[in-house]
Amino acid sequence: MRFTKMQGIGNDYIYVNCFEEQVENPSALAVRLSDRHFGIGGDGVILIKPSDRADAEMDLYNADGSRAKMCGNGIRCVGKYVYDRGIARKEVLKIDTQSGIKTLYLEVKDDAVQNVRVDMGEPVLEPAKIPTTLPDAKGQTLSVLDRQFTGTCVSMGNPHFVVFVDEVSSFPLETYGPLLETHPAFPERANIEFVRVCGKDEVEMRVWERGSGETWACGTGACAVAVACILNGHTGRRVLVHLRGGDLQIFWNELTNKVEMTGPAEFVFDGEVKI
User: How far is it, in rounded angstroms, from Cα 78 to Cα 8?
Assistant: First the structure.
């Protein structure tokens, strides 16, 4: 099977062009190939498939084999692949996902995609739709081990719990991330973001991703962080988000209520693997 390794600010996935390849058991394949010692290595596998209602479909499986509805960094890479590899040579693309059709606006230079702006849709703040059993999206406190965490729940096609902390780089993410991810308050588990406000309209974050552990970046997480910052009065509508792998520009449009995410996408290498 031919594959392509791609990354969006360090959030790396193994991409398979299902216009040409067939994958029978993507969940098991994602577990095997994502292993960084015995496989190719990545945060999961993304299948780029034909769609009868969009230019292509993105089908995402996390490193643990679980299926995910949406990935902001992943969809930017899908946009670059679809354009650069000739599946659809359009600077505005429609990509079908498990959380609906997303519109991508491509910045093309020298016949290659440099940056992608994604219409990520409206944030979901209704507890039942996130989903969470907590009574409200904002100002909710959860207890794990010896600490209490007050955070904001947001869905950007997948559930997030955003917590503001004084220090991000030294925060014991590996201790508290998995416990919050699997907290009973989140019936489908959740992505957990730990955030420090570091300037006017500027924040830094680390993320514990549902099904993958800590990753270098999370596009939907950055969008959820921006929404939480705005709801809690920390920033304006445009937020520069610093992640371990790089930066994303997030804009929550007051007129449309939609969140826009802009960032890079890059090829790493192509290869073949026996499946």
Answer: 10
